[in-house]
Amino acid sequence: MKQKPNVIIIYADDLGYGDLSCYGAQDIHTPNIDRLAEEGIRFQNAYSTSAVCTPARYSLMTGQYPFRNPDTFILPGNAKCIIDKDTQTLPGVFRQAGYRTGIVGKWHLGLGDGNIDWNGEISCTPNDVGFDESFIFPGTADRVPCVYVRNRRVEGVEKADPIEVSYDTECPFDDIDTYEKNPEKLRMLSSNGHNMSVINGVGRIGYMRGGKAALWRDEDLAEDFLKESLQFIDSSKEEPFFLLYTVHQPHVPRVPNERFAGVTGLGPRGDVIAELDWCVGELISHLEKKGILEDTLILFSSDNGPVLDDGYVDQAVEKNGAHRPAGPLRGGKYSKFDGGARIPFLAFWKGVIHPQVSDALLSQCDLASSFAAMLDVPVEDGAFPDSEDHLDALLGRSMEGRKELMYESESKAKVLRRGKWEYLEPSEGPAIEPHTNIELGNSPEGQLYNMMYDIGQRENVAERYPEVAKEMAVGIEEILESRQTRQ
């Protein structure tokens, strides 16, 4: 086994446990991603730390539960960077081990100090928290600014057309297209929000003026990120590389490249999943052509669970048919139920990892400590407080994972998984989110489920096993009061 393999993490956006054919999808076919499962490990009990994006990505980077940082909510596109420059990070581990490190795709962890100069050098980018190179969009595809940032500067911005960004309630710019003022410019209507700037015919969250030469086209996002990823691989000559490839699919707005439009019959959401699968296939093929596939460990996962209607009228609900994005799980993005944070997770390393299905309980925040162990990089004092070393499980050498893990819903309500038991703490709020129609799991009473027999979380057994429920409620409090859970 090569001691320092190349490592690629492909990190999807809002991809559900049931969205891949290797996880049981019947109406969406993902042959390239399936190859990773068929020739590698398909994990059945892997979790992110949150049912929404920013907190999950923060945990992946820092090896800690999001509750430890009060800024881990869904960030606007002009938010300050929420990772301190002095923090030991996942990419930092690879850099310490002599790797060339890069990120391509969605960032959504903030930039600068909150007063970003989009027309000059940006302080505190991914390059300051462990990456040698970065090519990202700052927030999400539905939030302004709709531009790429390469390392510390917006790609393609012209001095004569400076970028201005605002997240004020009222539009501060008189000379831009907006959802209310220019409905004739729209090719996709809003079902909730997304009613501020109109860019590329799509309503966005936030207002943006200028930067016309720097704007990306939604249809080109997948190919642009793929091209940059392949170029990063090609430019890594002597040293091993670590690539965090944070694809944007199937997050809204779902605008596939023209050649993928209509290929699934499930509307744009199905089409962008097919587009994602193609990207994975192109990446694998490139590694094969370069003769480095056997030297490369590939992990594939998602930041959180799925959602159909997430603010645009894009036929995701109407054309979904019998497809179950969360598979057998209850809930989805935003939710306390498992559909919110139990995610697809695959590990592939040709010739090293043997094909298998694993029930090991894993959290995405474990990657930091696991790779530190693989590369003999010391974990600094206070770093990776909730990240456990489960390298043996990641490489298929053991079926043993965590004893317990915690995740949270969008509303920050906590869930504790311990062995076969899962406990959802009491929380206020609606049972069903009215815009997305997702069951949120909110209840004034604690909920306890036996996940060995009730993967769909249909029978709350808290009254039948009150001592177990009490122990797990105490377990959540102990984690919240702790400085670290890693032993």
Please give the count of helices: 8
Number of domains: 2
Q: What quaternary form is this? A: single chain
Order of helices and strands: EHEHHEEEEEEEEHEHEEEHHEEEEH
Radius of gyration: 21 Å
What percent of residues adopt helix (DSSP H or I)? 10-25%
Q: What ranges have pLDDT less than 50 throughout 5 or more consecutive residues? A: none
The assigned structural class equals alpha/beta
Mean pLDDT: 98
Distance between the termini: 28 Å
* Sheet with the most strands: spatial strand order: 6-5-4-3-11-1-12-13-2-14
Shape: globular
Can you identify the CATH superfamily of the largest domain?
Alkaline Phosphatase, subunit A
Family: Belongs to the sulfatase family.
InterPro entries: Alkaline_phosphatase_core_sf, GAG_Ulvan_Degrading_Sulfatases, Sulfatase_CS, Sulfatase_N
GO molecular function: hydrolase activity
Keywords: Hydrolase
What does this structure look like?
Helices cover 19% and strands 17% of the residues. With 487 residues, it is an alpha/beta fold. It has two domains: 6-151 and 218-394, Alkaline Phosphatase, subunit A; 404-481, Arylsulfatase, C-terminal domain (2-Layer Sandwich). The strands form four sheets. A ten-stranded mixed sheet has the order 6-5-4-3-11-1-12-13-2-14, with helices on both faces. The protein has a four-stranded antiparallel sheet with strand order 15-16-17-18, covered by helices on one side. Strands 7-10 form a two-stranded antiparallel ribbon. A hairpin with a 5-residue loop joins strand 15 (404-408) and strand 16. Helix 4 (221-234) packs parallel to helix 5. The chain is globular.
